[in-house]
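User: Structure with calcium ion, tokens only please.
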Amino acid sequence: MIWNKKDNFADRKNNYISINNIVMKKVMMMLTAVLLTACTKTDLFDEGQLEKDTKKAYAENFTKAYPNVDLNQSWDYSHKNPAYSLSTSNHALTRAESFTLTQGSEYEVDASTLNWLKGKLKNGKNNRNLGKAFYMKAPANNFTIVPIFQGQASSIWELHAVINGVDMKVWEKCQDIWMKTSGSDEWKSVSSVSTNELNKNTENATAVKAKTYTFNNVPAGADMYFYLTVTKVTNSKYDYTINSQMSSLSGMMLSLSGCERPANIEEGNEITLIACEDVYDHGNVKSDNDMNDVVFMVYGKPEVPTTTEIEDGQPIVKQTTVRYMIEDLGATDDFDFNDIVVDVTETALSTPHYNDDYTISWTDSEPTQKAIIRHLGGTLPFKLTIGNTKLEEMQGVLGSNPNEEYDVTGWNKNTHNISVKVKQASNSTVYNNVAFPKSGEAPMIVAKDPQVEWMPERQHVPEDWFYIPTEE
Ligand SMILES: [Ca+2]
Ligand SMILES: [Ca+2]
Ligand SMILES: [Ca+2]
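Assistant:
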């Protein structure tokens, strides 16, 4: 019995072991299944985790690289000031342009010209009603422009000429302009008369001289217009004017004819004056519209460019561009923001309606949108989404300027609905998601004006790309 029992016991034990084996096998199978599932889950988890870790490291490195930059800011530094152009321009002439701009010698402004100007443009008065918005047609001869009067302005600006669509900088405030003041026979550069930008003007000068700028070989009949653009403000109240275009096309300049040729301009020359306003209304900031912030004389023999007024109802082209500078997270300690540089532009036809005081109300057509990839400075493949438009995957390239253009829709220049998926550096199938940053987040995209140049490879963008809190 005992043996039986033993046997039984042994049997039972065997049975138990057998049952146990089955259970164990089941448990093992289940475990394997669980482990397999866990394995898959772990991989997915790691991929998501990798993105999180990358972004966390990026944010930490950003704070280390830019200790003065408070993350609580908007990351939008674009001014969205429109650029203007002609809707019908003679672009057949834009190829193989051979015209040049050359600086000439000093020209002393004739007192008669300044007297005529001061009689015409009453200081501090609204002088808008002296002419409409305009563009010009080039004559067959060369022609020259020279600054003759620089008014009070706290901003620094440049004069640009656009000829057959080609934009050229002609002059900037205070450049090669000198004056004499009452009781002194000494020529002083206008920039040297004061440390206050506002007082660098020729308003009370007894004499003014400046270097001339000659346009050579401009094709006869070429369309041209001028604009003043603010490059720097010394009074933050005018921040909004940065990179704006105070254009002859948008009514920010006057073409003044009727001034007699001064004696020191050779007989046979024609002259005209171009007078510029450097402030336009924005919120509580109003322009005085006196149109004398800077005045140029144009002369040419036998002709100056012909002024063509932009009539009521005649549209011009208005374009607003935001440049997005994007980090692709290829490295978490690199802040060159040049991995993808894309300009997004909204284009509308803008039609002027002159009010009684010659200020202009504009009616804009429904805008169209396009994106231009300006620069690539990263190696990772990426997919860009702008507004409603998802672009095909593109290859990253280190240091190329493709200038490829894409139609887009649904872009909002104020909310910046732009995002990019970039393939993870260590993973060929998974993407990091980079969206326009919210306040409080470390930025992987910033919005800038299209005038802002991208950085050389692996060179951090300067701190002043961001807002730095100033001590009051
Ligand atoms: Ca003014
Ligand atoms: Ca980078
Ligand atoms: Ca780069």
